[in-house]
Records
---
Amino acid sequence: MENNPGDQKVIDLLSKLKNNQSGYPSELLELRRRKYMQKAVQVGFATGAGAGLKNILKGGGARLTPTTSTWLEVALVLAIVAEVSTAAYFYRHKLNNLFEVFLTTPRVQEVTPPPVVTSLLPVTEISVVPIATGTETPTATSTLSDAIVDNNSNSNSNENNESSNNSNGGNNQAASTPAPNGNNGNHFGQTKQPPKPTQELKDIKVPKNK
Amino acid sequence: MKEGVALLKAAQKLDEEALTAIFDQFAPAIYKYTLRLCHDPIVADNIVGDVFAQLLEQFAAGKGPRTNLRSYLYQTAYHLVVDRSRDSQHNAPLEIAVGIYEKGQFTPTQTQIEERVMMEALITAMNTELTEDQRHVVILRFLEDFSLKETAEIIGKEVNNIKVIQNRGIAKLRKVLGLQLGESW
């Protein structure tokens, strides 16, 4: 590049231009310098404050000897104990009330209802109840209906044949049930237990009318 | 070099004297460089302020240059000028950039008149004919006396690339001046 004389002329011109360049106006330079120094002070203050905080957080600010730190810890614990004792003394009545309320309050037990167990075999309940009623009720009704039938038959016979009534001597008593002979009809413990439900019993259809 | 390194280390610790010394040493040069690029003294002054403000922020963050402070400052100024030139084009009068031929101060001789004509032609060619990269490289290499390596660092290109840009820029200036000034070129 330097071999070309034209290029060298250009470079010489550029060097002249460099030497003749105007400088920084003094007013602008002074103003800019002042602003720069203000900024430097601000940045330095902020950085110094940040570094101080970092030192404090790191614990590198004022290092203490182990003995001093132990004494400080003991003093701190004693101060805390003294403060708690003083507070407890001043508020002893309130504390007493609080303890009484806490101790005398009945404790409520939470009772949970027993869990509802859903039966897997619903047929068993249906089969038990009708059998129990079915054994007693027909006997009672059957005796009554017989008596009524007997009374009706007797009244008819009275109308038709008064002589036969007179032969009874006026003692037209209703037919009663025979003497129980020590059996009052209650068969406690003698009722046959229904057989345990098996798979075959599920198929048995129980009439609902009973 | 040792003084420069010591100054840089002191400035990194935000030493006030070091920061002041850096400003006094480099602010006028950065101003000249910026003025050559943007041709506006107010914009150049603002860019100088931005350059040193960024330097302070970098120092405060524990970053910033470690070795070559001068190159770092020019690099920052270069990026700021490029950013501003993308936003708006500044075309200040050439007299601001030249600043030597103030009217009425002296009576020029014939040689001085010829030189002034050549100088104005050179400045016009630099501003109009060169690409942005060529102009930056020519200014850094021949007006700011940076080496090829330093220029490459500031521009952010390889040294060989800087050589090519420089040669093409000088060749273009020679060609334009030859056309304008006649056979003497």
---
Amino acid sequence: MTINATIEIFRCDPGGANGRFETYEVDVHDGATVLDAIEAVWAHHDRSLTFRHACHHASCGSCSVRINGRETLPCIADLGEALRARTPVRVEPLRNLPLAGDLVVDVDGAFERMLASEMTITRTAEDELPLDADGNGGVATRPTRVSDGLLRFNRFENCVECGICISACPTMATDQRFRGPAMLAAIARARAESTEPEVREHLLDLVDGEHGVWRCHSSWECTQRCPQGVMPAESIMQLRRDLVRRRSRRVPR
Amino acid sequence: MTMTDQSARTRIRSAVRWFDTRHRGPETWAYALNRITGLVLVAYLYIHLAVLSLLVRGPASYDTFVDVVRSPVFLSFDLVLIAGWLIHALNGLRLTVIGLGFGVRAQRMMLVGATVTGSVVLVVMGLLLFGG
Amino acid sequence: MGRARVIVIGAGSTGAATAHDLALRGVDVTVVERGEIASGTTGRNHCLLHSGGRYCVTDQEAGTECIDENLVLRRIMPDLLELNDGLFVATNDEELAYMDGFLASCDRCHIPARPLSRREALEAEPFLTPDVLAAVQVPDGVFEPYRFCLAFLATALANGAQIRTFTEVVDLVTSGGSVSGVQVVDRRTGTRSTLGADVVINAGGPWAERLASMASVDVPVAPTPGVMVTVGRRLNNMVINRLNTPSDGDIVVPQRTTSIIGTTSWSVDDPDFIPIPPDHVALLIERGQSLIPAVASTPIRGVMAASRPLISRPGIDARDVSRTFECFDHEPEGMDGFVTISGGKTTTARAMAEKVTDIVCDKLGIDAECRTSEVPLDSYRRFHGRGSAARATAPGSTTLQPMRAP
């Protein structure tokens, strides 16, 4: 069984000039994702199409685009569902990041922020299973215990550095110095994982100031669009609480 | 390129994106409306002061003024203004609370509560304005 | 007389590790990749940092190679790995009988292996099938192929390499019996250019044969994809393997908040686009359930497939083809300055890179030792983001550059 899909893809030169939508028709396997359709366009119809992708299972964060107007990871977005929402399916690049041609955006600024956050991409794991980022719910957790006493479980952080939150944030449209939801959420995680007070203080310093947590005006789009349950908006408010607490401690009596 | 390096046209074009609520959640409506009502309320303050300054011209001026402001058209503007104030104040309370890190997980419920409360108060205001 | 110049075609795990090794040895290296980093086979692999347990019984060479490289990767990219070990589980008498031979093979390959009782296995993995009779704990791990490649490439960049993505090789430049460069097109602008080199390394994975034909030499690569199914909950902390000879759907690799069931195997002619056969997906769900019953009630999150770059040998079934790698120096075939590195798996990418870099340095008369098993890799984030090493001290300050205006 195949799906016959019409898909509208944004095309442009590096820098954004000559921006337009081009429509393609592809036949892909049943159960295909939007990324499969994009790849089929490139493989069978238009070899000039440029787009980023690598893991095809939502762990690398490289393929993020907007599908029918919404930031998503196309590698886990069902094509049939996208077609039911809108035909032709519309695919365009992320917002708030410089356009590097077609669906490709320049992620240098985003990665620089993640570097500054000092969040390691691995973290200590919870001592129970299952873990669930989609909020599937409905399964009672069970504890895990390893008998050799030496093995401590770790795991990759939920965040896959996909840039979806950066694109979804309306504030990032006008403040290019804003730390942004990805970096602020990452700093919250880095502080949670760090045992060094000096590091935790430095990271709290980074989120202070007019381009830090105070620049957020609570549109909540980051938490809404995040494919990994990172909840940056909640992290930003938690950091504000930490900052307020720190400031109130410094007030001389 | 920092914000200060951008041309005024770029900044306005970018700012328009604050109000793009397409494919976005209810919190973005609150975000956009808070900005719009903020601008409207500031503009209203100037208009209000300008209008009040006309009253120094004396009683005749005042009577003409009262006739105008009791007209249904003007009362409708008043209602819009009250709506704007309710949106800004109630959402503002929500933002203050969550913005300091309290009750963050309940933020959507607060938004719903603010909308319901605001709607009820607006209806009551409408009745008071147009009833008597 | 400048530094020797080498061009590496392909930025998957092989190309990335090779660029790193070459750069460390002082070679002027440029990587050309037609898409995003790891957008070929490497990106879609099973993410398994092999302990070697899977291969040690039937292929001692592969098993030993795996455990050696496993330990190296733990040293050079410690923050990029989930290190929760793995379990080889016996769920029936046949598998239980396999255990002694398995433990002996692990020992021969110096793979640390610890037998566990049913109770211990279920305590560590509460969602493991209750049919489990016993298990063996081995040092399997989990990586992410994209960041794996970015880490090697970021380090290579810091050591002077150039990495050009969205740059496709359209032809090899040959003069007489020698490759002297590549003709590329920048896919974003359509601009063509020629890049000269002393040696060109073909690390094109399943496309290696297509690339080699541009120099009229043959590389027997058989693209052999396999499907993997990712389910939307992490149901296991450790890698779960079936204690048996390799078969379809016998591994469940956890990652973040998901579990990935794999894999299958079939041959394709065109590795550019691989339609996913639905019966493979169904098979994997069924096989996954037999190891972890809760798979049945967990929604599918993603499905992926990309071609293994197996080196084809006539008359041998794809599963039995060795997963060790091979280096083809094409000089004896009459085409000098051209070397293909193919086969293998991401776990052994660094070893593959060492071998091909040794060959290439020998050709170039470069006398430098391989240090890639000792040198820790830079942060993968430095591939895309330069960032400053210095930590700013004033509150709110940072050397962070503003995002360039869209």
